[in-house]
Design goal:
single chain, 208 residues, mainly alpha
Length: 208
C-alpha cells in the first residue's frame, strides 16, 4: 500500500517527490500566505531533512516554530510525516487524528491517519476512518487506491476492484504500483484487464 501523498511544501517547492503526482490539485487549497517567512524557512528545512532521511533534525526544525503557528495544519502534517518516517505509528495516528478534528482540507491528514492504523494492524478501522473523510477526497487518487488495499485485505474483493479502477482512472500510474503491492495480491492476476477497463471508461467520460 502506498504511503500518504507528499507533504504539500515538497510539492509546492518542486522538491523530489516520494511518489508521482497523486492529489496535488486538492493540496492547492492550502493557505501558505498565513505563514510568515521564518516559519516557512523552518518548514522547508524540515522537509529537506526528511528527504535526506534525517527525521530527528526535521523534528527539531518544527519544534523551533512558535506556539501561534505550531497548530497550523501544514506544520501539524509535517509532524505526522516525521513520526511516520520513524515508524512511530501510534504517535503519528494521534497527531493525524488531532489534525483531522480540525476539519482540515489537507488530504494527507486523512490518508496518513488510516495508513498508520493499517500499519498497526487495524485495517477495518483504517477503512472506516478513511470513508468518513470530507467529500474533497473523492478527487484524490490515493484515497481510492488505499481504500482498495484495505478492502482487499479485508476480503472485500468487489469493493477493492471498484476502488482500484477509480484510482487508476484518476492516475494511471497506479497500475504499476498495484503490480507489486502485497496488499493487492488477490487482484494482481486480473490487474491488466481492470486497468484497461478503467482507462477506457476514463476516455468515454472525457468524450461525453
Amino acid at each position: 500500500m502506498l504511503s500518504p501523498v507528499p507533504h504539500p511544501v515538497a510539492s509546492r517547492r518542486g522538491r523530489r517527490r516520494q511518489f508521482p503526482e497523486k492529489g496535488d490539485s486538492a493540496m492547492e487549497t492550502t493557505d501558505y500566505d498565513t505563514l510568515p517567512p521564518l516559519v516557512m524557512r523552518r518548514l522547508e528545512a524540515a522537509v529537506g531533512y526528511l528527504e535526506l532521511d534525517l527525521p530527528e533534525e526535521a523534528w527539531r526544525e518544527l519544534e523551533g516554530i512558535d506556539e501561534v503557528h505550531a497548530t497550523h495544519p501544514i506544520i501539524m502534517l509535517g509532524r505526522v510525516d516525521i513520526r511516520m518516517r520513524q515508524a512511530r505509528w501510534e504517535d503519528a495516528v494521534g497527531l493525524a487524528e488531532a489534525l483531522c478534528q480540525l476539519e482540515t482540507t489537507e488530504p494527507g491528514a486523512y490518508i496518513s491517519r488510516s495508513f498508520c492504523l493499517h500499519c498497526l494492524g487495524r485495517t477495518l478501522e483504517a477503512r472506516e476512518k478513511l470513508l468518513e473523510s470530507p467529500s474533497l477526497m473523492e478527487e484524490v487518487p490515493t484515497f481510492h487506491y488505499n481504500l482498495a488495499c484495505y478492502e482487499c485485505k479485508l476480503g472485500n474483493l468487489e469493493a477493492a476492484r471498484s476502488r482500484l479502477a477509480k484510482a487508476i482512472s484518476l492516475y494511471d500510474g497506479f497500475e504499476e504500483f498495484a503490480e507489486t503491492d502485497p496488499d493487492l495480491k488477490e487482484l494482481q492476476p486480473e490487474l491488466a484487464a481492470l486497468a484497461h477497463s478503467a482507462k477506457k471508461g476514463k476516455k468515454k467520460a472525457k468524450k461525453g
